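Appendix B. Chain record.
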Amino acid sequence: MDVLTFSTERHAPPDRAESWQKFICDMIHNVAVKRFSPADFSAQISARRQGDVSCAAFRSRPHDLAGRGERASDAGGAGYLLSWQLAGKAYITQGDTRIVLHPGELAVIDGRLPMQISFPDDVSRIVAKLPVRSIESRLPDIRRSHAFALRPSGPFSEVLLSYLKELASGTQDFTRDEVNLLADNICNLLKITSRQGGVASAAPRDLQREAVLNYIRRRAGDPALSLDVAAGQLNMSTRLVQKLLQEVETSFTGLLTRERLALAAQLLAAQRGASVADVAFSAGFNDVSHFNHLFKRHHGMTPSEYRAGV
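Structure tokens predicted for this chain:
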């Protein structure tokens, strides 16, 4: 498997973001490029991809990336994304998780879920896509959290970074079996590094909160979902559910609304033949006018305008 390279300098300025987006989608993950300067946007990348494993090293001018999550047709293919920040900052949002990644830090996020990543300054980083089973078998807590960040330290972190650099832009050619072996070794090193970096098992209260968050995310499209229903299904009191959410500065209603709006955005992009009303009802809203108002307030545009721009 050879290393592929790409530079936006080969393209006219108006076409650079689109060509950059296409290369990232082909090699790493399906995303949309947002908030960039058409006049001076530039980026360079080297990458390899083999089956469910890929790795890329890139540097670019400021821009945002939006991933809308995995489609049913490629279930499991999105994998987990390991990002090692080399220069600049990355602001990552996925559900209620907010991560600010500084140089020398790494994050692992669930590529199957929608995400927003912002690079406000020039940035350099390495990103690897790794199979779900490889990550979850070594880091089972990520099934609940879906994401974590840490600052790697110690000798194994240096080995991990060298593996990522070699896979992304090294000169050695690899067979399919060798790539899979490298991915397994990266996951093993990540497990060791995460322990040394202080990623510990969650406390019981944290696990309770994750249970609440995950339940609301899974059931957001159910128009009958309420605080009483959620508390009953989770064997918690409504007071405890409210307290757990208050501790992360949200509420049941606020979180449910955000999850429904996120689901609606996914459906608008994926089901282009569905009417806005159908999307609203499928996302758990029972009032189309109220949905339109909330969607415009949250996204800054109407559902129809959002769909046209995706």
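Further analysis of this model is presented in Appendix C.
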